[in-house]
């Protein structure tokens, strides 16, 4: 940047920013893209050499010197195509975090400049993918039921870390307004959200009483589809689903 006054602090901060963006910080690479930064870092009044500047930024110079992960454009495109073919949500925050190196490389200016541009270059229909992943009320409920069948905890603090896209979509005003409200519409009880595999007689009873209050479908078929872990707990502690429901209906909630 013309006229920029470089200090040690500014140099370190800029190196860290470029690293997060996936920019090639090897001596050869940085001279081509950020020559002023490279020259300033190597001046005697600052770090004296590029290696010292990289170390001051808290980075591994040996990895930087090799150019870090060397990507070819076709490698990036192939990675995107393969992930899409596996049915992964390539627009989701979870995917980008799990595949951070791929994502940052694709977004780097020397490759595609943005994730959208990389997806388009891979021959995929970005708008179509974006439209299909849009979270509406029906899709949110389907996903909650699916996760419940898998035995995953559905408390908000866990979902905010493991499925942030789902959690945030459920809380939007146009959907359910809150995570608790989304669970109620999916007819998932607090006990199911909290524990699933760790059922006691008391928690089974509490969950069934909550389902009764909801007016939920308590047929055995629905239990198999929507509440498999609760069903398992009911059979373990009451002998059968039907007996557990009978006790739940005849026992006043605590």
Short overview:
By secondary structure, this protein is mainly alpha-helical.
Question: What descriptors fit this protein?
Answer:
elongated, 254 residues, 0% strand, 3 domains
Describe the model.
The protein starts with 7 loop residues before the first helix and ends with a helix. Helix content is 64%, strand content 0%. The model has no long low-confidence stretch (mean pLDDT 86). Helix 2 packs across helix 3, helix 16 (201-214) crosses helix 18 and helix 16 packs across helix 19 (241-250). The protein has three domains: 8-65, no CATH class; 73-132, no CATH class; 137-250, no CATH class. It contains 19 helices and no strands. By secondary structure, the chain is mainly α. It has helices at residues 8-20, 27-33, 35-42, 50-56, 61-65, 73-85, 93-98, 100-107, 115-121, 126-132, 137-149, 156-162, 164-171, 179-185, 190-194, 201-214, 220-226, 228-238, 241-250.
